[in-house]
Amino acid sequence: MLRTHKLGEADRIVTLLSRSHGKIRAVAKGVRRTSSRFGARLEPFMVADLQLYSGRSLDVIQQAESLGSYGADIVIDYERYTSANAMVETADRLTDSEATPKQYVLLVGGLRALAAQQQPPRSILDSYLLRAISLAGWAPSLDVCAVCGVPGPHERFAAAQGGMVCANCAPPGSPRTDPETIALLLALIRGDWSRVDAAPEAAHNRASGLVAAFAQWQLERGIRSLAHVDRMRRDEQTGSGGPR
Hints:
The protein is of the alpha+beta class and 244 residues long.
């Protein structure tokens, strides 16, 4: 389940990503009533097996069986919650025109990892963003110049150009990137969690900034949820506390 909107007094429109049929918008009738049989199964971050009736403009959800109750474990932690929101928002944007089973599997795996606390939420989110964008055909270039193809290593990262760029192709103001951060980005894409865990905190901070800039450039508009993630990380670094 990606997101929901209220409809009338008791209904809800649910936007969901399916394994075989791409993105679907459907009406869940009566789910906002306390007597609803499956309202809790249609909340964001949940995975369910649905039976749908095809309507004129929107399908109608007739039955829902829970397959993954990840929402309850995600919403109790602010960092997990903001990371999950950024993930489903990204999935929603990437599947506007076409969805693939790989995008579905990737999102479900990311939500499962957040709920189970398999890795820090920041690392799960950064890995998801890089992999999801790569599946969509916009993999960042990290070992060769994204513009001219000259083999690296290179020191500059330019989101608008597609990743690492050589000195000749780097636009003014491109941030310098150290080898530790590049190695971490590669580990995040490959799911090499031993290398991810071994990376220093400073490299994680730099990598997260590059991932956010790259993701928002490729999607051509901002990911609203990332603003909350970035604010939380700044609060942690400055010791100013969490959300109020």
